[in-house]
Design goal:
alpha+beta, elongated, three-stranded antiparallel β-sheet
């Protein structure tokens, strides 16, 4: 699955029944001590529907959030 240009993964019903979790890494950067750090964003959507139906909703949510994060990051 691709979320906002980033390779991402989803898992239906992992958190509990009727849920979908998307895992995506919006950025990798060098931290203050010079080590490479990868951020992980992991939203979970719950609703009274089968988890696989929720994964599209979870991916859309993740895409919007990742896009908003990218807009607020300093340009390097």
């Amino acid at each position: 699955m691709n979320v906002a240009g980033t390779k991402s993964y989803y898992v239906a019903d992992q958190a509990e029944d009727d849920s979908c979790t998307v895992r995506t890494s919006p950025r990798t950067y060098t931290d203050d001590v010079g080590e490479e750090t990868t951020e992980l964003f992991q939203p979970t959507v719950y609703a009274p529907r089968p988890g696989k139906q929720l994964c599209g909703v979870a991916a859309e949510l993740a895409g919007r959030v990742v896009g908003n994060i990218a807009k607020r990051l300093p340009v390097r």
